[in-house]
Amino acid sequence: MKPSLRPTSRTSSNIFPSRRKTLQEVWSKGATTREDLAKFLRFVQETSLRFDGSAYRTMLRNDAYWFSRLGVHLERADNTARILDVKYHVLLPEEEHVGGPLDFYQWTSILRSVSALTAYHWVYRETLKPWLIADLLILNDTLPRSLASCYGNLVRNLDQIGVAYGRQGPAQRHARGIRNRLEHSHMDDIFQHGVHEFIQEFIADNSRLGEIVTKQYLI
Question: pLDDT tens digits for 168-204?
């Protein structure tokens, strides 16, 4: 019989009600001007970091915790992939040159948006280059927001859930398949076949994992 997670969800909410109240405060705030929007986004970022840190430091390491981490890494992988895809596929106007000032500014903004600008210079010690940025955000598992790092964590989290519930299933197999594909990928091959196509396939597979987890554990 498949165990129900609804009691677990209620229990985890009761563990840190103050954090739940903080999330409700986020939704109650709004932004009507550009300055208000900047303040609101900073507030969301700070609240998210506090919530994530509190959960990491205070939750019991049981199924509620592992499911919460699943959500973190699924969403993080999706966000990183979409941010990278937008830069490669949309942002640079046709009249602008690759490597020009606008291109450099956009790549800097992309790395800052995933808190990876310092990490890029630490790892590569070069000026910003699109193929190195893609390598960092896709294949470098030492960067927490990279696709490879997210899937390393997803596989570990799903394995913990498998132990807690006494069996593995399609979610574990699907996550391992994506992780193995990332581990055996090379940037030369990704660029040859198309970064946009690679990322679109990844986004679809990542979304599919969420659906499989839902069917395997939540329905």
Answer: 999 999 999 999 999 999 999 998 888 889 999 999 9
Q: Report pLDDT digits (tens) over 99-145.
A: 566 667 788 888 988 889 999 999 999 988 888 999 999 999 999 99
The residues near 158 (Cβ < 8 Å, ≥ 6 apart) are 66, 70, 171, 172, 175, 213
> Rounded CA gap, 195 and 189, in Å?
9
Q: Give CA angle at 49 (47, 50), nearest 5°.
A: 65
Whole-prediction pTM: 0.78
CA distance 123 to 136: 9
Return the DSSP state at 197: H
Q: 58: which residues sit within 8 A by CB, 6+ positions away?
A: 15, 16
Q: Which 3 state secondary structure label does DSSP give 167? A: coil
Contact in structure between 154 and 141 (CB atoms under 8 Å): no
Pairwise CA distance, residues 22 & 96, whole Å: 43
What is the identity of the amino acid at 216?
Q
- Using left for φ > 0, alpha for ψ between -120 and 50, and beta otherwise, residue 215 falls in alpha
**15-54: b (≥16 Cβ within 10 Å) or e:** eeeebeeeeeeeeeeeeeeeeeeeeeeeeeeebeeebeee
Q: In the numeric block, which tokens belong to residue 125?
A: 């010690």
DSSP 31-58: --SHHHHHHHHHHHHHHHHHHHHHHHHH
Structure tokens at 178: 């994506």
Tally the C-alpha atoms within 13 A of residue 214's C-alpha that lie toward its C-beta. Answer: 8
